[in-house]
Structure formats: structure tokens, C-alpha cells
Amino acid sequence: MKTRKMKQIPYSHQCIEADDIQAVIKVLKSDRITQGPNINEFEAALCKYTGAKYSVVVSSGTAALHIACLAAGLKPQDEVITSPITFAASANCVLYCKAMPVFADIQPDTVNIDPQDTQNKLTKRTRAIIPVHFAGHPCDMYELSRIAKSNNLTIIEDAAHALGADYKNSKIGSCRYSDMTIFSFHPVKSITTGEGGVVMTNNKKLYDRLIKFRTHGITKHGFIYGCQGNWYYEMQELGFNYRITDIQAVLGKSQLSKLERFILARRKIAAIYDNVFKGHPGFDLPVERGGIRSAYHIYSIQLKGKFSGKRKEIFDRLRNRGLGVQVHYMPVYMHPYYRQNLGFKAGICPVAESYYSRAISLPLYPSLTNTQVQAIVRVVKEVFNGA
Ligand SMILES: *Cc1c(COP(=O)(O)O)cnc(C)c1O
Questions:
Q1: Mean pLDDT across the stretch 187-195?
Q2: Are residues 270 and 122 in the same domain?
Q3: Is there a single domain that holds both residue 30 and residue 117?
Q4: Is 198 exposed, middle or buried (0-12, 13-18, 19+ CB in 10 A)?
Q5: Given ligand 1 and candidates 11, 60, 186, which is best to mutate, with the most ligand atoms within 8 Å of its CB?
Q6: 305 and 181 assigned to the same domain
Q7: Rounded to the nearest 10 degrees, how much is the dihedral formed by the CA atoms of 193, 196, 202, 206?
Q8: Which of 37, 136, 278, 369 has an alpha carbon within 20 to 30 A of 146's alpha carbon?
Q9: What spacing in Å lies between the alpha carbon of 89 and ligand 1's midpoint?
Q10: Which atom of ligand 1 is nearest to the CA of 161?
Q11: pLDDT of residue 6
Q12: Percent of the chain at pLDDT exceeding 70
């Protein structure tokens, strides 16, 4: 029998609709395609949604992490504790400031940073914690903020996965338990601007610094040398051009108005997976702890039992059957740069390394059709039956 090649269902995909496109076209035809009114409007909408006082939209989630670390005042020799199970940017931003990331192990069920191991990794040099809300499930912010308070640490939440998530009756992004929170608007995330990101904060001093770092360290008020005329501006810090365009900001505004629908769609698909795979002998499912609403950025299963050692084989079979499965993530310190240039070694976070060896992310995004979800379920069942 001939096997027909199915188009791969990716693990994630943006959801761009006709009105998103219309909004972008309107800006393209306007006078201000960058540094225009849509920047402030997108920022205001993000504040309204999350409840945070200030927001600074930038060109990527990585840029957001970088200026957050700069605003926090990270210096060479400082240490910052983060999770190993994350995208490299969560730790690279620390290196940008010539400070050193330190990896605390994860909780096996949520795959989030373990507060107890965070406590264990504290030293005299620890200056900050960057918790990552893995897969959109918020970290134990209550415990982490308690550790931060008693050790005078800054918390920067890497919420690249978690726009739309709730933690104990507050929105992630409200900064109720942190100093700053970053989001990413990359196409795989909750909403997209193509590339884009934001830093949220309730702290006016941090906000003023973030605004400067976004635009070359330049300011048009609060002069150090005094105003010399209407043309005058000062460069007071070594900043960057991390601005986002109005073309992107208007897309962000339009996308944000659909966030709730997107999250509900993600949660509905996750609930289908939860239901059909509950008690499956081959793998454990993602959890959602009490008091949490996960944004379900990804749906990462963990192989177990006789399947534990077969991740590559199962991954390849799923790919060959048209599922664009992915692995989130190899522990950051296992990358060659971290091992060869910074001296990290395997074994420092055993729970994270065990998780990595057994993880596979199934496709999950709002525009997956019911037919596609049923096809994914069928393929997963068949692959595990045949393995
Ligand atoms: C996507 C992502 C980032 C970086 O965001 P970009 O917008 O791609 O720069 C940072 N941290 C995590 C956990 C991410 O998933």
C-alpha cells in the first residue's frame, strides 16, 4: 500500500486573522510606522490586562530580558539563579551583563525551578532570580518572593510562555511577586508581533531605566547638564536600539484583544489530551497545580517505564507520522558554549537532566482543528502501541 505523506502539524503556530492584517495595513499607510502612537497604546493595553503599572515594549523577549537585567543593575561577578529547563535567552541575558547564571534544579511535576534548590544555590554574590514559567504554568512565586525578600534579591519573571496565565488570583505580568516580568511575542507564544517583547513593572525607577536602555540610553528630560534648547537630549547610559515598530505594536494590540480566546482554545485542546491520555502507561502528563491557570504554551509529556530510554525512537516515529513534535528543552548548561567557555558540567541538576531525556512536546496552538487533534491523538496511541 502507498503511504501518503501527511503535511507536518507543527508544535506551535501563530494565529493571524483578517482584522490583524487590516490593522497592520492601516499603519503601513500612515505617517508613523515606528515611534508612533501604537507603541503607547499597546503598552497601555498590556498594563490594563495584567494590572501592572508600567510596561516597555521592545524588539524581542530577549531584548526585554537584557534591559531588565541592566535595569536591575547586574554587574560582573554577580550571580543570578535561573532554571536549566528554558530557552537559552533566560540565562544568556545574565552573561550579557558579565554576570554568572547559576542553575537550580526543577520540580519534576511542573518542570519549574524548585524553591528549595534555589535556596540551596544562594551565595554571597547572588543578586537576582529569573524564574521561568515553563509551558505557561506559573512558578511557586510565593516561595520565591519570600526567598528574594529575605536575601535582598531582584526577581525578573521570564514569562515568555505565560501571557494569559494566572497565579493565586493575579495575572502573570502584574508583578505582584516580582520586580519585573518579561513576555515574548514570537510567533510560537500566546500572541505575536512577529518579533517582540515587553518588560512589565510597578516600579517607577526601574521603568525610567528601562525606557532609557531601549533607546541608546538617551533621554529628553531629567537632564544632567541642564537643558540647552528644544533640540536637546542627553545620552546618560550605554543603551541600545531595542525599539519595536508601530507596524508590530498595532499587531500586538489586535492580538491582545484575542488573548482570552486563544488561551481558552489552548486549554480546551490540553484538556482533550489530559482526558484521552490519563493513566497512559507510557508517559506522564503536564500538571496544573491548585490556584493556577496555565497558559498552556506547550504540552510536554514525560516518557516513563519501558519507554524511558526510547525518546529518540518515539520522537522519530511521531515525526515520521506527521507530528512536528519538539523537545523543550536541553538543560541550558549542557550547550557547548556553557560547557566549553564557562566550565559547566553534566550532573548539576539531575531532575532537569532526567526530565530532558524523557520529554516530548505535542502540537498545541489555538488554530488546531478538531480533526487535527483527533489525528494527533490517534498517531500518539499507535506509536506507543507499536513501540
Ligand atoms: C521565547 C523565549 C524567550 C525569548 O523570546 P524572544 O522573543 O524569542 O527573544 C525567552 N525565554 C523563554 C523561556 C522563551 O520561551
A1: 98
A2: no
A3: yes
A4: buried
A5: 186
A6: no
A7: -160
A8: 136
A9: 6
A10: 15
A11: 59
A12: 98
Residue 198 scores a pLDDT above 80: yes
Domain check: are 26 and 171 in the same one? yes
Task: Kindly give the distance from the C-alpha atom of residue 312 to the centroid of ligand 1, in angstroms, as a whole number.
Answer: 25
For residue 297, which atom of ligand 1 is closest to its CA?
15
Domain span at 233: 18-256
CA–CA separation, 318 vs 311, rounded Å? 10
Ligand 1 site, residue 157, Cβ cutoff 6 A: no
In the predicted model, what is the mean pLDDT of the chain? Answer: 97
d(CA 29, CA 32): 9
4 in a domain, yes or no? no
Q: Which of 6, 5, 15 is nearest to 269 (CA)?
A: 15
- Domain of 170: which CATH number? 3.40.640.10
Give the pLDDT confidence of 208-253 residue by residue, as tens digits.
999 999 999 999 999 999 999 999 999 999 999 999 999 999 999 9
Domain boundary among 237, 256, 275: 256
The answer to whether the CB of 50 is under 6 A from ligand 1 is no
Phi, psi of 355 (to 5 degrees): -55, -50
Q: Does one domain contain both 83 and 224?
A: yes
CATH number at residue 381: 3.90.1150.10
pLDDT of residue 386: 84
Q: Is the CB of 186 under 6 A from ligand 1?
A: yes
Query: Do 217 and 117 fall into the same domain?
Result: yes
Total structural domains within the chain: 2
- Looking at residues 309-317, what average pLDDT do you find? 97
- Whether residues 126 and 76 share a domain: the answer is yes
So what's the pLDDT on residue 115?
Answer: 98
3-state secondary structure of 57: strand
Ligand 1 centroid to Cα of residue 87, in Å, is: 6
Q: Do the Cβ atoms of 120 and 151 come closer than 8 Å?
A: no
Question: Whose CA is closest to atom 2 on ligand 1?
Answer: 160
pTM above 0.90, yes or no: yes
**Is residue 219 domain-shared with residue 266, that is, in the same domain?**
no
For ligand 1, the distance from its centroid to the CA atom of residue 28, given in whole angstroms, is 27
Rounded CA separation 75/123 (Å): 15
Q: What is the mean pLDDT of residues 65-69?
A: 98
Beta partners for residue 82, in sequence order: 103, 130
Residue 280 falls inside a structural domain: yes
